[in-house]
Specification:
By secondary structure, this protein is α/β, with parallel strands linked by helices. It has 8 helices and 10 strands.
Length: 300
């Protein structure tokens, strides 16, 4: 468009009228000046966009990579038959969790928290609704697909550890690593959780906190997409519980793993990126925590 305008000015110049020619030279100079200013402005805007993208990328590195809708529950229902009546454990649960988030699902006993965890972990199925994890409809999986899903994509951390008593600590971790495709080195994971001096001890020779560390190492060694923790601090004292929570948060922040902690302890909520409250089989509240509190400042 600019070239067309400049060519038009040249054609309109009258060779025998100096004033007329000077006028068109003046207009052409102004137009060229404006064109150069546009080019400069575009370069400045491009530089601003590049710098802004770099800053945004660094921010994502600091807070993990959040991808919208990594986990979606849509009107999920689960009922059990007791005699001639049905009891709803989940009565239409809806929530969204992003990849790389540290999530606390809180609520009183019997609210439906463990049912959510069991269904999300592929240990149980829903009666109605849709469950999506990383773009796949888990609620559509058959028995074989659920076994693969639990085997490769999910890491479990239980309240009472569930360790094999006749295996050493490192052997418990190796057992889980052997059934996975992209497992991490068991000994390296044991070192990461601070148990390099307890590799060859049996569970009965470990404290409660150490057994839970083995349980976390077993889950992390699978290199799962999703780490599900059912009351991981329920059987521990406050100080040991904080050490366990610090390990879980480290897995989330450093490895970009999505971690979901099921608990009735509302004191843990301030350390989470997202809080989901469940009551009577429904989500009573869900919100993003903009002011995450350090674990050291949490007391219960």
């Amino acid at each position: 468009m600019e070239n067309v305008f400049l060519n038009l000015l040249k054609r309109l110049k009258a060779p025998k009228c100096r004033a007329f020619n000077r006028f068109f030279d003046y207009m052409g100079a102004i137009f060229n000046r404006q064109l150069r200013m546009k080019v400069i402005l575009m370069k400045v805007l491009l530089m601003i966009a590049v710098v802004n993208d770099m800053l945004f990328t660094e921010q994502l590195k600091d807070r993990s990579v959040f991808v919208d809708g990594f986990i979606k529950f849509s009107n999920v229902r689960k009922r059990y038959k007791m005699g001639e009546i049905y009891v709803y454990a989940l009565a239409g649960v809806d929530f969204v969790i992003n990849k790389g988030e540290f999530v606390v699902v809180a609520g009183p006993s019997g609210a439906g928290k463990s049912t959510v965890l069991n269904i999300l972990g592929g240990m149980d199925t829903c009666d109605d609704g849709e469950i999506t994890v990383d773009g796949s409809r888990v609620d559509k999986y058959n028995r074989e697909k659920l076994i693969e899903y639990r085997r490769y994509d999910i890491g479990f951390v239980f309240q009472f550890y569930n360790l094999m008593q006749n295996l050493t600590a490192v052997e418990n971790v190796e057992l889980a690593a052997q059934i996975c495709k992209n497992a991490l080195d068991p000994k390296s994971v044991m070192i990461d959780v601070g148990l390099e001096h307890r590799l060859n001890n049996f569970p009965s020779q470990l404290s409660g906190g150490e057994q839970q560390r083995v349980s976390i190492a077993r889950a992390l060694a699978k290199n799962p997409k999703l780490l599900l923790c059912d009351e991981p601090t329920g059987a521990l004292d406050s100080n040991t519980g904080k050490e366990i929570l610090r390990l879980l948060q480290s897995a989330c922040r450093q490895k970009g793993m999505t971690v979901i902690v099921i608990t009735h302890n509302t004191a843990l909520q301030p350390m989470a990126d997202r809080i989901i409250r469940i009551n009577s089989g429904k989500v009573s509240d869900m919100y993003i925590n903009k002011d995450v509190v350090p674990i050291e400042r949490i007391e219960w």
